[in-house]
Amino acid sequence: MAVGTSVQDRGVLDKPAAHGSDLLPMIREILKRAGMEPSDLAGIIVGSGPGSFTGVRVAAATAKGMCRSLGIPLWAVSSLEAGAVSLDVQGPTLSEHPSNVLSSEEMARPRYVLFDARSDRVYAACYVPVEHGLEELIPPHATTIGEILADDIPACSFIGDGAERHSDEIQGAGFSVLSAPIGMPSAEGLLALIGRSPSRPPLGDIGLWEPDYIRPSSAERLARSRR
Known about the structure:
Blueprint: E1 2-3, E2 6-7, H1 19-33, E3 44-47, H2 53-70, E4 74-77, H3 79-84, H4 92-95, H5 104-108, E5 111-116, E6 121-130, E7 133-144, H6 145-150, E8 157-159, H7 161-165, H8 167-172, E9 176-177, H9 187-196, H10 218-225
Parallel strand pairs: 3-4, 5-8, 8-9
Antiparallel strand pairs: 1-2, 5-6, 6-7
């Protein structure tokens, strides 16, 4: 929960199977601690994916439902872009890890964000810092670590849980890997992306918006294979 440009409180769900049942109660508890009601909210920012199918789906459905019932705007931001901006935001999740303090040279490098998609697969995108934000060099896509390293990619830092999982291959190819929580989406990251782009409009028709899963779920792929 943020007031102005500052995150005031947060909650973390560490049991993926319980996201559907625990998310709304956690939101209510955070608002209660602040002495607020849902009707006090001015808007919601949600990570649009990719990531865990269940987590992305639950977050999107909850955000859409709340915004429609409260009549407030909804902003959707790429979860990979939120991971990229994590190097720039300084919240509790980063300041507790002094080993992640980076040089100005490292901060200026492109950031290749990888989210683990199991086995050798990852969700990936690359961003470069520019004045007042990030520029997308490689758009979000599903790929393998081998395909990424076989490409002609710029000197960059790899971040995200997918980068950590495949750190041996990445470092063996001559690239650096920065450890978590750098590379992971956070409340600070989502807020920073909207704050840096005040002209970024909220979603138009909330009911028509769907998150960016990038690739079908395991169940969908299995169903297609049986046709």
